Amino acid sequence: MIDAFNIYDKMEKNNILLSFKGDITSELLTSILQIMENKMDNMQEEPKTKKKVYNVLVECLQNLYHHMDDATNENGEKNRSAIFMIAKNEGSYNIITGNYILNNNIFGLKSRLDEVNQLTKDQLKDYYKSVLNNGEMSLKGGGGLGMIDIARKTGEKLEYDFLEIDKKVSFFTLIIKVTQPQLI
Amino acid sequence: MEKYAIEGTPKTPTISFDIQAGVLEIKGRSIPENSIEFYKPLIDSLDKYSSASKPVTTVNIQLEYFNTSSSKCILDVFKKLESIHKGGSAVTINWHYEEDDEDMLEAGEDYQAIINVPFKMVQVAE
């Protein structure tokens, strides 16, 4: 039997505001954004924080939407399911996403994340502008700007992990921290 | 076609393009998953406008949120406006941002640095 309390307790201890596991659809994203907006309104969150969290949420969720690989594992089972969670901690929000990725695609993604993580604020601004102006728009729409934008808006490093599941797929976890501005 | 107008949705902005007056307005949120599809009709109507542009073209952008997928399309809109500007219509882009929204102001400045059209940064109350 599923131990619901165990899941509940873990979520409670990690201050999870919202969590979802399943297929990521356009309608789902609309609903989640609406729910989070209402929650932040109810918590009387600062407009500045609200905007940052919302912006980062949009990019994270749309990353999941666009990049969920049809990750077929070594047994030929497809998994289009992903997880995401939003946690509210003291002074910050954490947005956590997790999805399967083909092992072949890890190298490219990891290099992009590492590249973004080593840039300073000014370098990120220049990099963003150059990708915006010169980069090719991918058919999926992102064009590689999402991660740069997230790093720029949060001013935080992108925390990630690749957990190898089998010879074909891994589970990719991304943790984005949005720090609330200090109130004076 | 004298007017191009579409109503906003939770994910897409309200767009009104008054071709007779030479006024284009984009307001609201632009966070669709597929921005290329959404912006294509506007790009097409700017193409048509460029052959018969007014002496003055005023552009008002007042976005609350936009995603990175829209940011490329917005750049394409601005590039069309840049060529309309070069073609002899005096284009001004009024970039509105809410007080305290430094990210939106910076986004406007990014475009200003890329596009050769006069920009005005307009602060609005929250």
Structural overview:
The complex is a heterodimer of chains A (184) and B (126). By secondary structure, chain A is α+β, with helices and mostly antiparallel strands. Chain A has one domain: Histidine kinase-like ATPase, C-terminal domain (Heat Shock Protein 90, 2-Layer Sandwich). Chain A is 47% helix and 27% strand. Chain A has helices at 4-13, 26-42, 47-67, 103-117, 121-134, 146-154, and strands spanning 16-23, 71-72, 78-79, 81-89, 92-102, 159-164, 169-179. Chain A has a five-stranded antiparallel beta sheet with strand order 1-4-5-7-6. In chain A, strands 2-3 form a two-stranded antiparallel ribbon. In chain A, strand 6 and strand 7 (169-179) form a beta hairpin. In chain A, helix 3 runs antiparallel to helix 6. Chain A starts with a helix and ends in a 5-residue tail after the last strand. In chain A, 25% of the residues are buried. The mean pLDDT of chain A is 89. Chain B is an alpha/beta fold and 126 residues long. Chain B has one domain (3-124): Transcription Regulator spoIIAA (2-Layer Sandwich), CATH 3.30.750. Chain B is built from three helices and six strands. Chain B has helices at 35-50, 68-86, 102-114; strands at 3-6, 14-18, 23-30, 56-66, 90-98, 119-124. Chain B is globular, with a radius of gyration of 14 Å. The relative contact order of chain B is 0.16. Chain A binds chain B through residues 26, 29-30, 33-34, 47-48, 51-52, 54-55, 58-59, 62, 65-66, 125, 128-129, 132-133, 135, 137, 141-143, 145-146, 148-149, 153, and chain B through 10-11, 31, 33-36, 65, 67-69, 71-72, 75, 98, 100-101, 103, 106, 110, 113-114, 126.
